[in-house]
Amino acid sequence: MRGEPVPARLYVLLATQAPVGLILRRGPTSYVCTIRWDRRNDAFKVGQWLRGRIYEDFCDLSPDGKHFIYFARKKDPYTAISRAPYLKAVVLIPQRDGWGGGGLFTAPRTYALSRGEGAEGASTKEVRFDPAYPLTEPSVLAARLLRDGWRRVKPTKAAKGVVFEKPIIHGWVLQRIEHTKPKRSGKSSDLVEHRLIQSNTGLAIEGPDWEWADFADGRVYWAAKGKLWAAKPFHRELVRQKELADFNAMKYEQLLAPY
Fold it and tell me: How many Å apart are CA 41 and CA 106, to the nearest integer?
């Protein structure tokens, strides 16, 4: 007897200077699709599919939302920069191994490579390598979170692991907790959880299924079970909760970038 279909996994990168985002939709395991998200009207546009793996924690979207730097593996690992939401590289950096890839945008047109990156960065008419940027955080993810308004805090009994918080509105704080061991089903997908905590009252809204969450445009966004959601935080609750899109039914397509 077959069990329930496995939902797609979603991860989202938000541009900090433009109302757009890039969604990485994974599933089945060896397939990933990029999707452009226009946050002004919650419209979505499919970019390209990759038969391989993109490592979300090593990726970044440029502040203006026009370029995407990512660390991927097909047969061999590589770092690439593309025109979002597509995957076709305008800069391609082969990797020596599966560690230390990816990078971070330091401005709309400049980027730094992950610490431990063995290859040299490249500059083109579109993007320029910034060798002077001190990417000293232990991961691209940590550097990206700190750049985008999160802060690292000490773990507590209720939040054990690596904890980041982002103050938002009405006294709410969005919390991201990365555990050292899976908490629920024992799967690696349980390593990260999110919750909202109201600093004034201690009121908490748990997001046990939230694979990703962030705050922008006056809304809390989160991804759960292949769907993207939004709601507005009010004084003691989330209001106007809305399902923005369900990406579970998507199937692999061979798509070409328009450049």
Answer: 28
